[in-house]
Amino acid sequence: MNTHRPVRVLSRALSRALSHSSSAAAEPSFPLKNVTKSNFEPVLAELRRHVAAADFVAVDLEMSGVTSAPWRDSLEFDRPDVSYLKVKDSAEKFAVLQFGVCPFRWDSSKKSFIAHPHNFYIFPRQELPVESPTYEFLCQTTSIDFLAKYQFDFNVCIHEGISYLSRGQESKALRRLRLAYEDESNLKEVRDAPLVKMADTLFTERMKNTFTEWRDGLLRNRNGGSKFQGISNDRQQHLETIFFKMCPALSLNGFTSHQLRLIQLVIRRHFQDLSYVQVNGENSCQQHLVVHTDSEDDRESLMKEVKDEHLRQAESKVQAAVGFRHVIDLLSSEKKLIVGHNCFLDIAHIYSKFVGPLPSTAEEFVSSVNEWFPHIIDTKLLLNANTVLQQRMKKSQTSLSSAFASLCPQMSLGAKSTDLAFQLCVKVEVQVDDLRSSNWNSGAKHEAGYDAFMTGCVFAQACGHLGIDFEACLPSEKLAHNEKLKQHINLLFLSWNKGDVIDLTTGNKNAMSVGSKKKQRYSEISFEKIALIWGFSSKLKAQEIRECISKVFGPLSVVSIYHLDESAVFVQFKKQKLVSDFLSLKDTLERNNGPVAVLHPFAGLLEGGNTRAADYDTYKEICSSPNAEVLFADQAEAFGIQWKTKLVEAKASLDSLECESSGVQNNALDPASKVDEKSERKDMDNVQSDSSSAHVSHFKIIDSLIASRADKVRTNM
Predict the structure, then answer these.
(1) Rounded CA separation 710/704 (Å)
(2) Which residues are bridge partners to 60 per DSSP?
(3) To the nearest 10°, the Cα dihedral for 139, 140, 144, 146?
(4) d(CA 406, CA 422)
(5) Secondary structure of 639-702 in the HEC alphabet?
(6) How far is residue 709's CA from residue 679's CA, in Å, rounded to a whole number?
(7) Which of 340, 379, 337 is nearest to 465 (CA)?
(8) At residue 676, what are phi and psi to the nearest 5 degrees?
(9) What does the CA dihedral 686, 692, 698, 703 come to, rounded to 10 degrees?
(10) I need a labelling partner for 605 at 20 to 30 A (CA). Which of 74, 291, 385, 403 fits?
């Protein structure tokens, strides 16, 4: 009998595998609404209904990249304000290629959530009716390769992606349109343009005769009661008499743009009762007309009507170019709870792409975002901050895919199980159009629509484990105000590496003090005790830099050294005073450059003459620069050139101001001018000293110098 047991076991295993594969084959693929510009309008109308009825809306974004340089990645030595600057840089430089939106509505009759996953392809295409700069964005090769690995369709994105305008871009475009239609300077240029070529002179004279003949014919026909007739000579193929706004008009066909400008000139110089009009005809083709009016009042009324119509048409084109931002406006106006996973960068992208330029500080950003989206919850923070959920996760990773696998195993595996351990805490069904399903294969990960669905499912299960009874909730009760969720609303990870959390309601920034905080390599980082060094020889290692400094300031003077990249390091000293001592000693050695400097322990660090050093605030200033250099040393050099240029320009402008003042002229005979000159040199020496020791911000140095010299100019004046 023992010999038959392995056969039976193998038989059962094969039968289970076959039954599982057949059931899996019978399961439909994950239902997902893919949206491009071709079906955007009808889908938007449906989405409005789904969002209005939703209890919460999950979102997810797929971008063209995350970091423009290795040193711009999130680092443990990043202060919260620096972390924001790095997120800001990423959101400004990279594009959003896919936007997932998934409203979730509780269905009391089925005792389950109904999810409506939408996968929007978006692309920043230029569709404005006025001239404006074309869009530019960076692509990070690792991100593009990652998307390609998961079968991202770049052709659909580029050719069929929905364009968009931010609120700021829309306002700017509308202002430019109104200015364009109010400004008649171009018409004056046409009227006053001299005729240089003989061909132009002949053409204008011929058109003058033609318009005179046509107008006189109108008057004769009106008195005689006969019908309008077209031009009867060989120019009939170019000119045709029609009615426009109840006025007789001559349609101009087949003329070049240069000839049309000459026609405008003829009309303006020689005809008070004729007007040149350009309108949009059928199929958006421009139609050029010469219209006859009986009086000056009729002419002004006609031109105003045409101008207003042009403006309305252009404004409608701007409205059409708003595109995907209508979805963002919808989410904002409905004030629904927005659910994301590790979503601070997502929110920054949403603001940058659809609201306006990102503010320069996290505090300003928080204040503005809270007006647009008053209720946001981050499932990654929720899973790490709550002990009940940590126990449920069994200390597994809190990435979206891991959280989905832990909390929603049935949906993650694409299979149904009777095992109690696999039973969902909260049921979820999916509906796309008229198809509603609770049984499907798992979707494509890292597709924004499916990732938004996973985020919403993780949140729904988390709420269930927290004891939130959706059945007991009143229809009027908003999930964002639930007592068990209140403490987690509007808290986002500003930096996941350090556990820095920012409160979108108050703007407060704190390290996460509850839950499983990510283990850090460096503890007790004190930013006041940090010096930044860059531009040293690439052969130098962290240990060698530590030894150079320790030989001067003592073996315990350096707490830690952290590489930003191969060209720069952070050095954390034991005491804050050692930062200024180090910067001053380095500056002194570089100024002297004698035998002592060559034999000094810093000689290896300063070798090559390109080593620079500064305090932590200079690091923040460099991070705020929009430059996109790969190496930090190159970024710092580009930043330094910028502020030095600003200093030179400021000095030149002050010199010009001094020359214009009468006091400067009199100072040539005034002994006090020599005193001012010495004082000025002293100011410049102080500026150079301060900038080299990096105790003062470069911009503060410039401002103080400008203020000092401006005061002297006013005194002389």
Answers:
(1) 10
(2) 100
(3) -160
(4) 9
(5) HHHHHHHHHHHHHHHHHHHHHHCHHHHHHHHCCHHHHHHHHHHHHHHHHHHHHHHCCCCHHHHH
(6) 10
(7) 379
(8) -60, -40
(9) 10
(10) 74
Residue pair 167/325 in contact by the 8 Å Cβ criterion? yes
In angstroms, how far is CA 453 from the centroid of its own chain? 24
Quote the pLDDT of residue 139.
Answer: 95
Residue 435 CB: number of other CB atoms within 10 A?
A: 9
Residue 317's H or E segment, with its range, is: helix 296-322
SS3 per-residue string spanning 521-555: CCCCCCHHHEEEEECCCCCCCHHHHHHHHHHHHCC
What is the SS3 assignment for 25?
A: helix
Q: How far apart are CA 508 and CA 102, in angstroms?
A: 30
pLDDT of residue 71: 94
Element (H, E) at 361: none
Count of CB atoms situated within 10 Å of the CB of 90: 23
236 by Cβ neighbours in 10 Å (0-12 / 13-18 / 19+) ranks as exposed
Name the token pair of 586: 């380095």
Going by C-alpha positions, the residue among 633, 360, 384, 661 that lies closest to residue 496 is 384
**Phi, psi (5° rounding) for residue 440?**
-160, 165
pLDDT of residue 608: 85
- Residues 116, 103: contact at Cβ < 8 Å? yes
Q: Which ranges constitute the DSSP H helices of 335-427?
A: 344-354, 362-372, 379-385, 387-393, 400-407, 409-413
Q: What is the pTM of this model?
A: 0.77
428-432 and 112-115 beta bridge pairing: parallel
Q: Which two tokens stand for residue 141?
A: 């090769």
What's residue 684's pLDDT? 44
Give the span between the Cα atoms of 137 and 481, in whole angstroms.
39
Q: How wide is the angle at C-alpha 287 spanned by C-alphas 283 and 288, nearest 5°?
A: 170
Please give the structure tokens belonging to residue 592.
């002297």
**How far apart, in Å, are the Cα atoms of 275 and each of 254, 257, 295?**
19, 17, 11
How many other CB atoms are there within 10 angstroms of residue 67's CB atom?
A: 18
DSSP states of 445-499 as a string?
A: TT-HHHHHHHHHHHHHHHHHHTT--TTTS-TT--GGG-TTTGGGTTEEEEETTTT
Looking at the chain, how many residues does it have? 717
C-alpha 611/C-alpha 206 separation (Å) is 75
Q: Cα–Cα distance between 36 and 42 in angstroms, integer? A: 11
* Residue where the block lists tokens 């002419």: 299
Query: What is the end-to-end Cα distance of the chain in Å, rounded?
Result: 116
Torsion angle of alpha carbons 679, 681, 685, 687, nearest 10°? 80
Tokens at residue 240, please?
Answer: 């045709």
| CA-to-CA dists, residue 473 to 54, 57, 363, 487, angstroms | 14, 17, 34, 18
Give the β-pairing of 435-437 and 428-432. Answer: antiparallel
Q: What is the mean pLDDT of each run of 10 residues along the chain (717 residues)?
A: 45 44 53 94 96 96 94 91 95 97 94 95 82 82 93 95 91 81 51 72 88 86 51 55 86 86 88 86 75 86 83 81 94 96 96 94 92 94 85 76 86 56 76 82 81 96 90 76 90 84 88 53 83 92 93 94 93 95 90 74 89 93 91 91 52 57 47 47 46 43 47 47
Angle at 174 between CA 169 and CA 178, to 5 degrees: 150
What pLDDT does 39 receive? 96
Closest C-alpha to 59, from 115, 7, 143: 115
| CB atoms closer than 10 angstroms to residue 17 | 10
Tokens of 48: 């409005």
